Amino acid sequence: MSLNRITSFIFGIIFIVILYNIIYYALKVMYKDVRTGKKGKRRRVIQAHGLEIIKSTPKESLKNGSIIPVRETLSFGRKEDNSIVLNDEFVSGYHAKIYTKNNIFFIEDLGSTNGTFVNGTKIDGRVKLSVNDEVRLGNIVFKVID
């Protein structure tokens, strides 16, 4: 037997042993998962909220009856870098933000000049919102929907 044949034979055996070990450990992991009924982590479902435009102004691109879904933080104001730009003279540059935290819906006034109103009451800071609450920013009125 030549040295090349012996080397090829040894590498062939090593390859088969490595392949066998990979298959063995893969089957062992799959068997353990099946036996214990272990499932992947479940993702927490975040409840989607939204805002329906109840009253808008002629200058606004938002039309009455339109829906704004809220899945993340939305900022409202006259400045262009807000999520929702409002063209109302009574809305501040950075007026308010709306967001969900632990499936609870909040609005926060950002120190606006003319205030943020929830159900006709001027708010200060952060306030929890419920379905059917009315939010007024300047002359624009939104209704919280689920």
TrEMBL record:
Pfam families: FHA. InterPro entries: Cell_Proc_Reg/RNA_Proc (IPR050923), FHA_dom (IPR000253), SMAD_FHA_dom_sf (IPR008984). The lineage of its organism: Bacteria, Bacillati, Bacillota, Clostridia, Eubacteriales. The keyword Transmembrane applies. Residues 74-123 form the FHA domain. The chain crosses the membrane at residues 6-27. It comes from Inconstantimicrobium porci. This is FHA domain-containing protein. Keywords: Membrane, Transmembrane, Transmembrane helix. SUPFAM superfamilies: SMAD/FHA domain (SSF49879). It comes from the Bacteria.
